[in-house]
Amino acid sequence: MNPSLRTQRLRLTWLLAIPFLALAQPTPAYLIAGVLLSVPGLLLRGSAAGHIDKDRILAVSGPFAHLRHPLYVGSFILGIGLVVGGGLWFLLPLFVGIFSWIYARAIKAEEEGLLARFGLNFAEYRSAVPAFIPRLRPAIPHRWRASTEPKARGGHPGTNGIGSATTGASTEGGFQLHRFLQNREWEAWLGMLLGFGLLAVKMIWAP
C-alpha cells in the first residue's frame, strides 16, 4: 500500500477508535457475537500474511488462489466484528462507507503497482481471481501455479517487458511463519485483543 494511504488509514482508525469506545454499549452477547465474527477475519489475514513475500513474489497460493485481497477482506470482517461487539449497530453503514472509501484507493494503487512489476502474470491472475468474493475452487491453472518466472510483456523472458528483472508467480513453500512475522501480522492479533479487551473493561466497569 502507498505509504501516504497507509498513514491516512492508521490516523483515521485511531481517530474513530476514541468516539467508538465512548459510545460503545457492549454486553456479553454482543462481545461473543463480535468475537465469533472477528476470528474468521483474523485467520484469513493471518493465512494471507504467511503467503506474502512482498516485492519479490506474486502471491497466488493459499487464500490468494481464491480472492485477490484476502488481507483487506479479513480487515473488513474484523472491523464488522468490533462494531457488533460494541453494540453499535447503527455504525455499520458508516463503517462500510469509510472502509470502502479508504481501501478503494489503496486497492487501485496496489494493483497498478503489481501490474507494473509482474506484467502479464498479474494481468492473468487478476482476470482469473475475483477481488472480494472468493471462488470455492482455486482459479489458477496448474501450469501457471508452477511458474517461477513472469510472462514477459514484449521484453526478454524474465523481465516485465521494459527490461527490468522481476520475480514471477510462485506457490513454493505455502504458508511460512517467517513471512507472517516479517509482515508484522501479529499486530492485528494484538489489535483485536486490545479492542475487545477495552470493550470488556467498559462492560464491567461502566455498565
- Please tally the β strands and state the result: 2
Distance from N terminus to C terminus (CA atoms, Å) equals: 39 Å
Helix content: 55-70%
User: What amount of the residues lies in strands?
Assistant: under 5%
* Radius of gyration (Å): 19 Å
- The string of secondary-structure elements, in order, is HHEHHHHEHH
Number of contiguous helices: 8
Categorize the overall geometry. elongated
Computed structural class: mainly alpha
Largest sheet: 2 strands, parallel
Average pLDDT for all residues: 80
What does this molecule look like?
With 207 residues, the chain is an all-alpha fold. 60% of the residues lie in helices and 2% in strands. The protein contains 8 helices and 2 strands. It has helices at 3-23, 28-49, 70-85, 92-118, 120-128, 142-145, 177-182, 186-205; strands at residues 58-59, 169-170. A two-stranded parallel ribbon has the order 1-2. The longest helix has 27 residues, at 92-118. The radius of gyration is 19 Å and the shape is elongated.
Explain the layout of strands and helices.
Blueprint: H1 3-23, H2 28-49, E1 58-59, H3 70-85, H4 92-118, H5 120-128, H6 142-145, E2 169-170, H7 177-182, H8 186-205
Parallel strand pairs: 1-2
Helix pairs in contact: 2-3, 2-8, 3-4
